[in-house]
Design a protein that fits this description.
This protein has 197 residues and is an alpha+beta fold. The protein contains 8 helices and 8 strands; from the N terminus they run ααββββββαββααααα. The protein folds into 2 domains: 135 residues, Jelly Rolls (Sandwich); 47 residues. It is 47% helix and 21% strand. α4 packs across α5. InterPro entries: cNMP-bd_dom, cNMP-bd_dom_sf, RmlC-like_jellyroll. This is Crp/Fnr family transcriptional regulator. Pfam families: cNMP_binding.
Amino acid sequence: MDEQEIRLLLTQLLMPIVQFNEYEIELALDLFSFKTFESEAHVFVSQDIVTEVHFVLSGLGRYYYLDRDGKEFNKSLVKQGGAFTSIGSLVDSSPSPFYAQALTQCKIASIRYDELVALAEDNPNWGRFVRRLYERLALKKERREASFLLLDAQQRYEQFLMDFGSESENIALNQVAMYLGITDVSLSRIRKKMGLT
């Protein structure tokens, strides 16, 4: 990617969250690295010490846990505008308890967390950016928790379809079922009931 393409991708990522000026984007440009992860590639794995925040410029991914028997459990799905990281790793330097994986090809903009914090301490807009990232994370977790406590499986699936829109077609149904906390068979029944099969 050339510098103009990098600047455009970074601007598209940042501007919906905070209205940065060109100088503020310039401050961060050299701090970001850009990578492409192919489908099924891991951004990081369990037990890694994660030191970066990996923003998704395009594509879809997931966080998942692996139990002792090798069974996977989706923690969260990540779409364009979201990010991969482990807060525990960033804050406590502890190993990540989960994996982060691309489900489709993902273009990622990565920045070291300590450099992001330094930007936030030196510039009010970068400070707002970091605060809004944490606010978005808290809201996402709050909504997910409420969906498991207050919605049945079909309602959770309907919410998933609203949240992911046309991108939902790019996520394998077994991944969707894991995300919803149901079996593949249950999801198939729900889809049939909704006239989607």
